[in-house]
Specification:
By secondary structure, the protein is mainly beta. The protein has no helices and 16 strands.
């Protein structure tokens, strides 16, 4: 299976290349939709958060009144993929491991009739990765278990088949897992046709957690 590969930030007009739904280099205006426990959380493009270029996306849960299960989520909606095969790839850096409960990467889609969702959940402190099963629970992907190196950017990838509403596979920090045939979560009837990428961070205790995100790509698998 092959899709767009490599450092995509340096070429021109890739935002309108066939199969490209989203390229986010975090160098422009912050236009992501934000939700969570609120307060003095941080959701902005910042130089300190950059993997490539000048800026990256800095995400930090609230500091004032911080408690366990605080969360901060950002999402971006985009067009539905023409091919029905979709991949998201991004760089993620947990600034410190201990405060984290998890980092989630989500793909939500609707074909105009029904919605479905796929999610990877990274247990940062334990170095474990889970996928969200059709019933809504999270199942460990044993092949991806590896300690997280604090302060390092890791690549996270999630691929789904919208023709069957199933996972295809995923990759975290250089380790790959085949998830083909596993059903995505059903969201029931949804009238709109769209795809959406989300990133969520959540705390393990009464201390804020912080992550950097950069080099975000969402696009189609063009060749099978």
């Amino acid at each position: 299976m092959r899709d767009h590969l490599g450092n995509f930030m340096v070429a021109g007009n890739l935002g309108f290349a066939r199969g490209v739904l989203l390229l986010e280099d975090c160098e422009g205006t912050f236009t992501w939709v934000v939700s969570g426990t609120g307060g003095d959380d941080v959701h902005a493009f910042a130089t300190v958060a950059a993997f490539m270029g000048t800026n990256g996306m800095r995400l930090k849960t609230r500091t004032t009144g911080a408690t366990a299960a605080d969360n901060l989520a950002v999402e971006k909606a985009m067009s539905y993929p023409e091919s029905g095969l979709l991949v998201a790839r991004l760089r993620v850096c947990p600034v410190a491991v201990a405060p984290f409960d998890y980092i989630q990467v989500l793909l939500d889609v609707s074909d105009g009739a029904a919605g479905h969702g796929a999610c990877l959940q990274l247990d940062v402190a334990a170095g474990k990765v889970y996928y969200q099963a059709a019933g809504g629970g999270f199942v460990e992907i044993v092949a991806l278990a590896a300690p997280v190196y604090e302060g390092a950017f890791m690549t996270v990838e999630l691929a789904v088949d919208l023709l069957t509403n199933q996972y295809l596979g995923c990759m975290v920090n250089g380790l790959r897992a085949d998830l083909a045939g596993l059903a995505m979560v059903s969201a029931g009837a949804v009238a709109y046709r769209f795809a959406r990428l989300g990133v969520t961070i959540a705390t393990a205790g009464a201390a804020a957690c912080e992550a950097y995100v950069d080099s975000v790509y969402v696009g189609e698998f063009l060749d099978l």
